[in-house]
Design goal:
Blueprint: H1 2-31, E1 46-55, E2 66-70, H2 85-93, H3 97-100, E3 105-110, E4 120-128, E5 134-141, E6 147-155, E7 164-169, E8 171-173, E9 208-209, E10 236-242
Antiparallel strand pairs: 1-4, 1-10, 2-3, 2-5, 5-6, 6-8, 7-10, 8-9
């Protein structure tokens, strides 16, 4: 009887061991099952543009040009309305950093440097198709107190490859600083003075067409400008081309 009991006990142990082995094998097979393949995300489609700006003035360098992609409801300036602080910084000092941070501005690309009289600068942009909307181009006339030029609300959505749009732009006065032309009040090479000044001491605190500079040669004795710094409209030519 004792021998039979041991034999049965051994068979039971072998049976349990075999069952456990089968269960482990089954678990191992489940762990090795490859995960389902995920579909690849669609490729991002982009549109490429070139913005070319030509300085048409005799002696008014332009600050590094900023191109700003923006939504339909964005308006960087409006004639007859008070300039924002962001626009004031651009018009007085050529600083576009605050403009690029405005709500509704979705992207900014700046030029390589100042654009001298008669010179041209070209800015290349690659924009995801889903974000292509409107474009603004803006720059300061640096031998002035607060003059700027540019264009805004350019609709890029339907511009075909190799198609271009051109604009001849006028000079605007931001109305944020008096056009004194006095020493120390202009950031350009004719003076090397200050740029943005938070105090608003303009003749009128609203954006309007710039009346032009007067200069010392015209009888404004405190001016550091000469007749060469005078300008007529248009002051710049801007061309936008879709390249891809």
């Amino acid at each position: 009887m004792t021998i039979t009991t041991r034999f049965n006990s051994t068979r039971i142990k072998l049976t349990l061991l075999a069952s456990a082995t089968l269960m482990l094998a089954a678990c191992s097979d489940n762990d090795n099952t490859p995960p389902p393949e995920m579909p690849e995300p669609p490729a991002v489609v982009t549109k490429n543009f070139e913005v070319t700006i030509t300085n048409l003035t005799a002696n008014q360098p332009l600050s590094p040009v900023a191109t700003l992609q923006h939504n339909d409801d964005v308006q960087l300036w409006m004639a007859g309305e008070m300039a924002s602080v962001a626009l004031e910084k651009l018009a007085e000092g050529g600083d576009t950093s605050d403009l690029s941070e405005l709500q509704g501005v979705t992207g900014t690309v700046s030029g390589s440097g100042a654009v001298g009289p008669g010179a041209t600068d070209t800015i290349s942009m690659e924009i995801p198709e889903a974000r292509v909307a409107n474009l603004a181009v803006i720059t300061m006339l640096v031998n002035t107190n607060d003059a700027f030029t540019g264009v805004q609300g350019i609709d890029l959505t339907d511009l075909a490859i190799d198609e271009s749009m051109s604009y001849r732009t006028m000079a605007y006065d931001a109305g944020t600083e008096a056009n004194s032309e006095a020493k120390g009040t202009m950031p350009g090479p004719a003076d090397g003075g200050e740029g943005f000044n938070a105090s608003r001491e303009g003749d009128v605190d609203r954006v309007h067409i710039h009346p032009g500079v007067i200069s010392m040669d015209d009888g404004l004795m405190d001016s550091v400008l000469s007749a060469s710094h005078r300008f007529d409209n248009p002051v710049a030519m801007i061309t936008i081309t879709r390249t891809k």
